[in-house]
Amino acid sequence: MPSYILLMKLTEQGRKNIKEAPGRVEAGIKAWEALGGKMTSFFVTMGEYDYVAVGEAPNDEVAATFSLMLSSLGNVKTMTLRAFTKEQFSAMVKKITIT
């Protein structure tokens, strides 16, 4: 399955209701799985983003649907990145024909 990195920033609403955040995280993971994905890691981070999640989904449409759903709740703003493994990267580079 394709891999995705989700970068999330709390909104004012999300910060205001921070005590509910652990439950929202669990609900989000269940929603990702209900769409056919698998969440492999979730982190609370310091810096520009408040949360970082790494997961797999069947396709880009599932990942985009999840990001739209999560953003529509108003607690976080999301950025979703399609991620490639080092093996996938090597295979892509081998296909480059222009030198």
Descriptive notes:
This protein is of the alpha+beta class and 99 residues long. The protein has a single domain (3-94), classed as 2-Layer Sandwich (Alpha-Beta Plaits), CATH 3.30.70. It has helices at residues 12-16, 21-34, 60-72, 86-94; strands at 3-10, 38-44, 51-56, 76-83. The relative contact order is 0.26. The model has no long low-confidence stretch (mean pLDDT 96).
Whole-number tally of structural domains: 1
The CATH class: Alpha Beta
Which structural class is indicated by helix and strand composition?
alpha+beta
Q: What's the helix count?
A: 4
Task: Give the number of DSSP strands.
Answer: 4
The coarse silhouette is elongated
- Secondary-structure arrangement, i.e. CATH architecture: 2-Layer Sandwich
CATH superfamily heading? Lrp/AsnC effector binding domain/regulation of amino acid metabolism (RAM) domain
Determine the mean pLDDT: 96
Which series of helices and strands comes N to C?
EHHEEHEH
Query: Radius of gyration from the CA trace?
Result: 15 Å
State the CATH topology: Alpha-Beta Plaits
Tell me the β content: 25-35%
Name the helicity range: 40-55%
> What is the spatial order of strands in the main beta sheet?
2-3-1-4
Give the CA-CA distance, first to last residue: 31 Å
Biggest sheet details: 4 strands, antiparallel
As residue ranges, the low-confidence spans are none
